[in-house]
Protein backbone atom coordinates (compact mmCIF):
# COMPACT_ATOMS: atom_id res chain seq x y z
CA UNK A 1 0.00 0.00 0.00
CA UNK A 2 2.84 2.37 0.91
CA UNK A 3 4.55 1.46 -2.35
CA UNK A 4 1.45 2.45 -4.32
CA UNK A 5 1.27 5.80 -2.49
CA UNK A 6 4.90 6.55 -3.28
CA UNK A 7 4.30 5.68 -6.92
CA UNK A 8 1.31 8.05 -7.08
CA UNK A 9 3.32 10.87 -5.49
CA UNK A 10 6.09 10.35 -8.00
CA UNK A 11 3.68 10.42 -10.91
CA UNK A 12 2.20 13.72 -9.63
CA UNK A 13 5.67 15.25 -9.28
CA UNK A 14 6.60 14.11 -12.75
CA UNK A 15 3.38 15.50 -14.17
CA UNK A 16 4.00 18.87 -12.50
CA UNK A 17 7.55 19.01 -13.89
CA UNK A 18 6.20 18.33 -17.37
CA UNK A 19 3.89 21.36 -17.15
CA UNK A 20 6.59 23.71 -15.85
CA UNK A 21 8.47 26.17 -18.01
CA UNK A 22 10.45 24.27 -20.58
CA UNK A 23 14.22 24.63 -20.26
CA UNK A 24 16.68 24.44 -23.13
CA UNK A 25 18.50 21.17 -23.64
CA UNK A 26 21.75 22.75 -22.44
CA UNK A 27 20.09 24.00 -19.24
CA UNK A 28 18.57 20.59 -18.56
CA UNK A 29 21.94 18.87 -19.03
CA UNK A 30 23.62 21.42 -16.76
CA UNK A 31 21.13 20.92 -13.96
CA UNK A 32 21.27 17.15 -14.22
CA UNK A 33 25.05 17.23 -14.11
CA UNK A 34 25.01 19.57 -11.08
CA UNK A 35 22.81 17.18 -9.08
CA UNK A 36 25.00 14.27 -10.17
CA UNK A 37 28.16 16.09 -9.00
CA UNK A 38 26.57 17.04 -5.69
CA UNK A 39 25.51 13.46 -4.97
CA UNK A 40 28.91 12.16 -6.05
CA UNK A 41 30.61 14.56 -3.63
CA UNK A 42 28.24 13.50 -0.85
CA UNK A 43 29.03 9.83 -1.38
CA UNK A 44 32.77 10.51 -1.38
CA UNK A 45 32.42 12.44 1.88
CA UNK A 46 31.23 9.23 3.51
CA UNK A 47 34.89 8.21 3.63
CA UNK A 48 36.54 11.21 5.38
CA UNK A 49 39.54 9.18 6.48
CA UNK A 50 41.68 7.08 4.20
CA UNK A 51 40.95 3.45 4.96
CA UNK A 52 42.76 0.61 3.27
CA UNK A 53 41.21 -2.43 1.63
CA UNK A 54 42.83 -5.53 0.15
CA UNK A 55 42.10 -6.37 -3.48
CA UNK A 56 43.03 -9.87 -4.58
CA UNK A 57 43.60 -10.17 -8.33
CA UNK A 58 42.03 -13.06 -10.21
CA UNK A 59 43.95 -12.51 -13.44
CA UNK A 60 45.93 -15.13 -15.42
CA UNK A 61 49.60 -14.73 -14.55
CA UNK A 62 48.75 -12.53 -11.55
CA UNK A 63 46.50 -14.96 -9.66
CA UNK A 64 46.45 -14.13 -5.95
CA UNK A 65 48.40 -10.87 -6.28
CA UNK A 66 47.36 -8.53 -3.46
CA UNK A 67 46.88 -4.79 -3.95
CA UNK A 68 46.31 -2.42 -1.03
CA UNK A 69 43.88 0.28 -2.18
CA UNK A 70 41.82 3.13 -0.70
CA UNK A 71 38.28 2.33 0.40
CA UNK A 72 35.58 4.32 -1.40
CA UNK A 73 38.12 6.04 -3.66
CA UNK A 74 40.03 3.40 -5.59
CA UNK A 75 38.36 1.80 -8.61
CA UNK A 76 39.20 -1.22 -10.78
CA UNK A 77 40.76 1.29 -13.16
CA UNK A 78 43.02 2.44 -10.31
CA UNK A 79 44.04 -1.18 -9.81
CA UNK A 80 44.79 -1.59 -13.51
CA UNK A 81 47.15 1.40 -13.34
CA UNK A 82 49.25 -0.54 -10.80
CA UNK A 83 49.79 -3.24 -13.41
CA UNK A 84 50.82 -2.57 -17.02
CA UNK A 85 49.59 -0.14 -19.68
CA UNK A 86 47.95 -3.06 -21.49
CA UNK A 87 45.48 -3.59 -18.64
CA UNK A 88 44.70 0.14 -18.55
CA UNK A 89 43.93 0.38 -22.27
CA UNK A 90 42.38 -3.08 -22.86
CA UNK A 91 40.19 -3.61 -19.79
CA UNK A 92 36.53 -2.96 -20.55
CA UNK A 93 34.74 -4.29 -17.47
CA UNK A 94 35.56 -5.76 -14.07
CA UNK A 95 34.28 -8.57 -11.91
CA UNK A 96 34.25 -7.69 -8.21
CA UNK A 97 33.59 -10.77 -6.08
CA UNK A 98 32.11 -12.26 -9.25
CA UNK A 99 29.74 -9.34 -9.89
CA UNK A 100 29.95 -7.21 -13.08
CA UNK A 101 31.44 -3.86 -12.10
CA UNK A 102 32.25 -0.66 -13.96
CA UNK A 103 35.95 0.18 -14.26
CA UNK A 104 35.23 3.59 -12.68
CA UNK A 105 32.99 2.49 -9.80
CA UNK A 106 34.71 2.85 -6.38
CA UNK A 107 35.50 -0.26 -4.34
CA UNK A 108 33.98 -0.15 -0.86
CA UNK A 109 35.40 -3.28 0.75
CA UNK A 110 38.13 -5.89 0.40
CA UNK A 111 37.33 -8.06 -2.59
CA UNK A 112 38.56 -10.21 -5.44
CA UNK A 113 39.01 -8.50 -8.81
CA UNK A 114 39.07 -9.70 -12.40
CA UNK A 115 39.66 -7.39 -15.36
CA UNK A 116 37.73 -8.39 -18.48
CA UNK A 117 38.63 -7.68 -22.11
CA UNK A 118 37.06 -8.40 -25.49
CA UNK A 119 39.71 -11.08 -26.09
CA UNK A 120 38.71 -13.23 -23.13
CA UNK A 121 37.75 -16.86 -23.70
CA UNK A 122 34.19 -16.11 -22.56
CA UNK A 123 33.41 -12.48 -23.45
CA UNK A 124 29.66 -12.71 -22.78
CA UNK A 125 29.54 -10.12 -19.96
CA UNK A 126 31.86 -7.74 -21.82
CA UNK A 127 29.79 -8.03 -24.99
CA UNK A 128 26.59 -7.30 -23.09
CA UNK A 129 28.15 -4.21 -21.47
CA UNK A 130 29.50 -3.11 -24.85
CA UNK A 131 26.10 -3.39 -26.57
CA UNK A 132 24.54 -1.48 -23.68
CA UNK A 133 27.23 1.21 -24.00
CA UNK A 134 26.71 1.55 -27.74
CA UNK A 135 22.98 2.07 -27.15
CA UNK A 136 23.75 4.72 -24.51
CA UNK A 137 26.06 6.45 -26.99
CA UNK A 138 23.32 6.40 -29.62
CA UNK A 139 20.85 7.94 -27.17
CA UNK A 140 23.32 10.69 -26.36
CA UNK A 141 23.86 11.43 -30.06
CA UNK A 142 20.12 11.67 -30.69
CA UNK A 143 19.66 14.10 -27.80
CA UNK A 144 22.28 16.40 -29.36
CA UNK A 145 21.41 15.93 -33.03
CA UNK A 146 18.53 18.36 -33.45
CA UNK A 147 18.20 22.10 -32.99
CA UNK A 148 16.78 23.49 -29.75
CA UNK A 149 13.49 24.04 -31.60
CA UNK A 150 12.91 20.28 -31.68
CA UNK A 151 12.42 18.25 -28.51
CA UNK A 152 13.89 14.74 -28.24
CA UNK A 153 12.87 12.43 -25.42
CA UNK A 154 14.63 9.17 -24.64
CA UNK A 155 12.09 6.47 -23.84
CA UNK A 156 14.36 3.56 -23.00
CA UNK A 157 17.48 1.64 -23.97
CA UNK A 158 16.12 -1.87 -24.62
CA UNK A 159 18.71 -4.41 -23.57
CA UNK A 160 18.79 -6.80 -26.51
CA UNK A 161 21.08 -9.70 -27.23
CA UNK A 162 24.23 -9.08 -29.25
CA UNK A 163 23.01 -11.81 -31.60
CA UNK A 164 20.03 -9.60 -32.50
CA UNK A 165 22.37 -7.85 -34.94
CA UNK A 166 21.84 -4.29 -33.70
CA UNK A 167 21.71 -2.27 -30.51
CA UNK A 168 18.80 0.13 -30.21
CA UNK A 169 17.25 2.99 -28.33
CA UNK A 170 13.63 4.13 -28.34
CA UNK A 171 12.83 7.82 -28.64
CA UNK A 172 10.00 10.27 -29.23
CA UNK A 173 10.88 13.20 -31.47
CA UNK A 174 9.14 16.55 -31.61
CA UNK A 175 5.63 16.31 -33.17
CA UNK A 176 6.89 18.64 -35.93
CA UNK A 177 9.04 15.71 -37.11
CA UNK A 178 6.29 13.08 -37.23
CA UNK A 179 6.40 13.02 -41.04
CA UNK A 180 10.20 12.78 -41.15
CA UNK A 181 11.97 9.66 -42.33
CA UNK A 182 15.77 9.86 -42.03
CA UNK A 183 17.76 9.79 -45.25
CA UNK A 184 21.10 8.05 -45.65
CA UNK A 185 22.76 11.44 -45.17
CA UNK A 186 20.87 11.90 -41.88
CA UNK A 187 22.12 8.53 -40.67
CA UNK A 188 25.66 9.42 -41.70
CA UNK A 189 25.34 12.68 -39.77
CA UNK A 190 24.32 10.77 -36.64
CA UNK A 191 27.22 8.36 -37.20
CA UNK A 192 29.64 11.29 -37.36
CA UNK A 193 28.27 12.56 -34.05
CA UNK A 194 28.93 9.18 -32.44
CA UNK A 195 32.43 9.00 -33.90
CA UNK A 196 33.26 12.40 -32.42
CA UNK A 197 32.34 11.12 -28.94
CA UNK A 198 34.38 7.98 -29.56
CA UNK A 199 37.37 10.04 -30.63
CA UNK A 200 37.22 12.00 -27.35
CA UNK A 201 37.73 8.74 -25.43
CA UNK A 202 35.46 9.87 -22.58
CA UNK A 203 34.91 7.75 -19.45
CA UNK A 204 31.46 6.54 -18.45
CA UNK A 205 31.39 7.41 -14.77
CA UNK A 206 28.81 5.48 -12.72
CA UNK A 207 26.98 6.61 -9.62
CA UNK A 208 24.58 4.35 -7.75
CA UNK A 209 21.77 6.39 -6.22
CA UNK A 210 18.44 5.91 -4.49
CA UNK A 211 15.37 6.53 -6.69
CA UNK A 212 14.51 9.90 -5.08
CA UNK A 213 17.95 11.24 -6.06
CA UNK A 214 17.51 9.98 -9.62
CA UNK A 215 14.10 11.66 -9.66
CA UNK A 216 15.76 14.95 -8.74
CA UNK A 217 18.35 14.50 -11.47
CA UNK A 218 15.61 14.23 -14.08
CA UNK A 219 13.07 16.59 -12.52
CA UNK A 220 13.78 19.48 -14.91
CA UNK A 221 12.30 17.90 -18.01
CA UNK A 222 9.40 15.72 -19.08
CA UNK A 223 11.61 12.67 -19.46
CA UNK A 224 9.26 9.84 -20.34
CA UNK A 225 11.96 7.21 -19.98
CA UNK A 226 12.37 8.22 -16.34
CA UNK A 227 8.63 7.95 -15.75
CA UNK A 228 8.57 4.40 -17.10
CA UNK A 229 11.57 3.37 -15.03
CA UNK A 230 10.37 4.95 -11.80
CA UNK A 231 6.88 3.50 -12.00
CA UNK A 232 8.47 0.09 -12.62
CA UNK A 233 11.05 0.40 -9.83
CA UNK A 234 8.71 1.76 -7.16
CA UNK A 235 6.05 -0.74 -8.15
CA UNK A 236 8.37 -3.72 -7.64
CA UNK A 237 11.41 -2.84 -5.55
CA UNK A 238 10.73 -0.02 -3.10
CA UNK A 239 14.30 0.05 -1.80
CA UNK A 240 16.08 -0.43 -5.12
CA UNK A 241 18.98 1.73 -6.20
CA UNK A 242 19.46 3.00 -9.73
CA UNK A 243 22.77 3.54 -11.46
CA UNK A 244 23.35 6.80 -13.29
CA UNK A 245 26.14 7.22 -15.82
CA UNK A 246 27.78 10.55 -16.60
CA UNK A 247 29.94 11.06 -19.67
CA UNK A 248 32.21 13.85 -18.55
CA UNK A 249 33.13 16.82 -20.76
CA UNK A 250 30.70 15.69 -23.40
CA UNK A 251 27.70 17.93 -22.83
CA UNK A 252 27.47 16.60 -19.25
CA UNK A 253 24.98 13.94 -20.24
CA UNK A 254 23.48 11.85 -17.45
CA UNK A 255 21.56 8.68 -18.24
CA UNK A 256 19.98 5.68 -16.58
CA UNK A 257 21.32 2.27 -17.44
CA UNK A 258 20.16 -1.27 -16.77
CA UNK A 259 23.71 -2.41 -16.03
CA UNK A 260 27.38 -1.44 -16.14
CA UNK A 261 28.85 0.18 -19.23
CA UNK A 262 32.33 -0.35 -20.59
CA UNK A 263 35.08 1.92 -19.32
CA UNK A 264 35.16 4.62 -22.03
CA UNK A 265 33.80 5.66 -25.40
CA UNK A 266 37.22 5.08 -27.00
CA UNK A 267 36.73 1.31 -26.71
CA UNK A 268 34.26 1.61 -29.58
CA UNK A 269 35.82 1.41 -33.02
CA UNK A 270 33.69 0.72 -36.07
CA UNK A 271 30.34 2.37 -35.29
CA UNK A 272 27.42 3.19 -37.55
CA UNK A 273 23.83 4.32 -37.06
CA UNK A 274 21.93 2.04 -39.42
CA UNK A 275 18.19 2.84 -39.15
CA UNK A 276 15.42 4.71 -37.37
CA UNK A 277 12.14 2.78 -37.54
CA UNK A 278 8.69 4.19 -36.67
CA UNK A 279 6.96 1.97 -34.11
CA UNK A 280 3.55 3.65 -34.14
CA UNK A 281 1.74 6.05 -31.85
CA UNK A 282 2.29 5.64 -28.14
CA UNK A 283 1.30 7.42 -24.96
CA UNK A 284 3.80 10.23 -25.55
CA UNK A 285 3.66 10.51 -29.33
CA UNK A 286 5.19 8.69 -32.28
CA UNK A 287 7.62 6.11 -30.93
CA UNK A 288 10.75 5.39 -32.98
CA UNK A 289 13.51 2.82 -32.62
CA UNK A 290 17.00 3.99 -33.57
CA UNK A 291 19.46 1.18 -34.30
CA UNK A 292 23.15 0.84 -34.85
CA UNK A 293 26.07 -1.51 -35.31
CA UNK A 294 29.53 -1.44 -33.78
CA UNK A 295 32.67 -3.46 -33.17
CA UNK A 296 35.12 -2.77 -30.32
CA UNK A 297 38.62 -1.46 -30.69
CA UNK A 298 40.17 -4.90 -30.28
CA UNK A 299 38.09 -6.40 -33.10
CA UNK A 300 37.87 -5.28 -36.71
CA UNK A 301 35.85 -6.52 -39.68
CA UNK A 302 36.73 -6.45 -43.38
CA UNK A 303 34.54 -4.04 -45.36
CA UNK A 304 32.74 -6.89 -47.12
CA UNK A 305 31.84 -8.50 -43.79
CA UNK A 306 30.84 -5.11 -42.40
CA UNK A 307 28.41 -4.55 -45.28
CA UNK A 308 26.68 -7.83 -44.50
CA UNK A 309 26.48 -6.99 -40.81
CA UNK A 310 25.16 -3.53 -41.64
CA UNK A 311 22.44 -4.94 -43.90
CA UNK A 312 21.26 -7.10 -41.03
CA UNK A 313 21.40 -4.20 -38.56
CA UNK A 314 19.05 -2.16 -40.75
CA UNK A 315 16.19 -4.58 -40.05
CA UNK A 316 13.83 -3.78 -37.21
CA UNK A 317 14.80 -5.40 -33.91
CA UNK A 318 11.66 -6.62 -32.19
CA UNK A 319 11.57 -6.05 -28.42
CA UNK A 320 8.78 -7.69 -26.36
CA UNK A 321 6.14 -5.18 -25.25
CA UNK A 322 6.49 -4.13 -21.65
CA UNK A 323 10.20 -4.81 -21.29
CA UNK A 324 12.32 -2.01 -19.85
CA UNK A 325 16.09 -2.06 -19.42
CA UNK A 326 16.12 -5.77 -18.70
CA UNK A 327 17.78 -8.44 -20.82
CA UNK A 328 15.29 -10.10 -23.12
CA UNK A 329 14.96 -13.78 -23.89
CA UNK A 330 16.03 -15.58 -27.03
CA UNK A 331 12.55 -15.11 -28.50
CA UNK A 332 13.84 -11.92 -30.13
CA UNK A 333 13.50 -12.02 -33.92
CA UNK A 334 14.69 -9.95 -36.83
CA UNK A 335 11.86 -9.54 -39.35
CA UNK A 336 12.59 -7.73 -42.58
CA UNK A 337 11.55 -4.10 -42.59
CA UNK A 338 9.68 -2.80 -45.65
CA UNK A 339 11.64 -0.56 -47.97
CA UNK A 340 10.75 3.12 -47.66
CA UNK A 341 11.71 6.11 -49.76
CA UNK A 342 12.63 8.80 -47.25
CA UNK A 343 11.47 12.34 -47.94
CA UNK A 344 13.60 15.44 -47.59
CA UNK A 345 15.55 15.46 -44.31
CA UNK A 346 14.92 18.40 -41.95
CA UNK A 347 17.85 20.60 -41.12
CA UNK A 348 19.85 19.33 -38.13
Order of helices and strands: HHEEHHEEEHEEHEHHEEEEH
Taking all residues together, what is the mean pLDDT?
A: 80
Outline the low-pLDDT stretches: 231-238, 247-251, 324-348
The structure class reads alpha+beta
Largest sheet: 5 strands, mixed
Q: Whole-Å distance between the termini?
A: 47 Å
Description:
This protein is of the alpha+beta class and 348 residues long. It has helices at 2-18, 25-44, 76-81, 85-90, 124-145, 184-200, 211-217, 224-236, 303-313; strands at 52-57, 66-70, 93-96, 99-101, 111-116, 152-156, 167-173, 204-209, 242-247, 253-257, 268-282, 285-296. It has a 5-stranded mixed beta sheet. A 4-stranded antiparallel beta sheet has the order 6-7-12-11. Strands 8-9-10 form a 3-stranded antiparallel beta sheet. Helix 5 crosses helix 6 (184-200). The protein is globular and about 60 Å long. It comes from Oncorhynchus kisutch.
What is shown here, in short?
The chain has helices spanning 2-18, 25-44, 76-81, 85-90, 124-145, 184-200, 211-217, 224-236, 303-313; strands at residues 52-57, 66-70, 93-96, 99-101, 111-116, 152-156, 167-173, 204-209, 242-247, 253-257, 268-282, 285-296.
Amino acid sequence: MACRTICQLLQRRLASSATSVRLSAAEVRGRRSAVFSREQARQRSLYPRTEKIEVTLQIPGLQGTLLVMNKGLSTPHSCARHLTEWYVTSSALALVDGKPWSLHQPLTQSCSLSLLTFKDTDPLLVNQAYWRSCAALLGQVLLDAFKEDFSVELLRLPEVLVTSGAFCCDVVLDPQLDAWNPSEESLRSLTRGAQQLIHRDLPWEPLEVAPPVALEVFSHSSDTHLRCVFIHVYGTHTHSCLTLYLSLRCGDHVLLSGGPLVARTGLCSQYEVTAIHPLGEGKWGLHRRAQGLSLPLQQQAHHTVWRKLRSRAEKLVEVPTGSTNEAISDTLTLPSAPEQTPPHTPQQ
